[in-house]
TrEMBL record:
PANTHER family according to UniProt: GLYCOSYLTRANSFERASE, SLL1095 PROTEIN
Protein name (Swiss-Prot/TrEMBL): Glycosyltransferase
Keyword Transferase included in the entry's annotation: yes
Gene Ontology MF, one: transferase activity
NCBIfam families found in the cross-reference section: glyco_like_cofC
UniProt key word Repressor: no
Database matches in Gene3D superfamilies: Spore Coat Polysaccharide Biosynthesis Protein SpsA, Chain A
Alphabetic keyword roster: Transferase
Superkingdom of the organism of origin: Bacteria
Length: 200
């Protein structure tokens, strides 16, 4: 276990009517919850074998004996604020704890693989920043070796401006960076392969 590397996972508690609300508008809250539980399971599968420390940040309340085994994942509650403030605090806490290579992901990407996350940590050995762009203009992964505050300020979160604006910050700060493959987050019905739920 490489103690200097930390993977942060931002997740929502899987509760009916509180997850995948945009998706729920077309498929209903029950199916949206089923999709989200599937995404959580996928995220666990692609992260649990990684030789890095792992910390799950819950949106509502910390859960034990759930999808995230307590012996593999550290657990915490997401800080207050908007998404930028939450991520900023999570990175700040990680670096304050002595980690030197920190990567954050969500739980919305069905295409994410263990190999891509490994690529991210490998990229940080030679670059300041690594970003995984999402098709919707956001990003599914962000990694860095020290805290860069501009990444989390003056952003229109959950819009197509997040990735390009973050890239501008990277260049303005004269940081070296690597981009990972462009993947799709699951926000709408067409983003998800329903065959995995047994529903065509």
């Amino acid at each position: 276990m490489e103690q200097t590397k930390l993977l942060l996972l931002f997740v929502r508690n899987p509760e009916l009517g509180k997850v995948k609300t945009r998706l729920a508008a077309t498929v209903g809250p029950e199916v949206a919850l089923e999709v989200y539980i599937h995404l959580l399971q996928h995220t666990r599968q692609v992260t649990q074998q990684l030789p890095v420390d792992k910390l799950v940040y819950y949106a509502e309340k910390i859960a034990h004996n759930d999808n995230w085994p307590d012996d593999i994942y550290q657990k915490a509650l997401q800080p207050e604020g908007d998404l930028g403030e939450k991520m900023n605090a999570a990175f700040e806490n990680a670096f304050a704890s002595g980690y030197t290579s920190v990567v954050i992901i969500g739980s919305d990407c069905q295409q994410l693989t263990q190999e891509i996350i490994q690529q991210a940590f490998a990229a940080l050995e030679t670059h300041d920043v690594v970003i995984g762009p999402a098709l919707d203009g956001g990003y599914y992964l962000l990694g860095m070796k020290k805290l860069h505050l501009p990444f989390f300020r003056n952003k229109q979160w959950s819009t197509e401006h997040v990735f390009p604006d973050t890239l501008k910050d990277t260049r303005a700060l004269h940081l070296t960076y690597t981009l990972l493959p462009i993947l799709s987050d699951v926000d709408k019905a067409e983003d998800f392969d329903f065959s995995e739920l047994g529903q065509e």
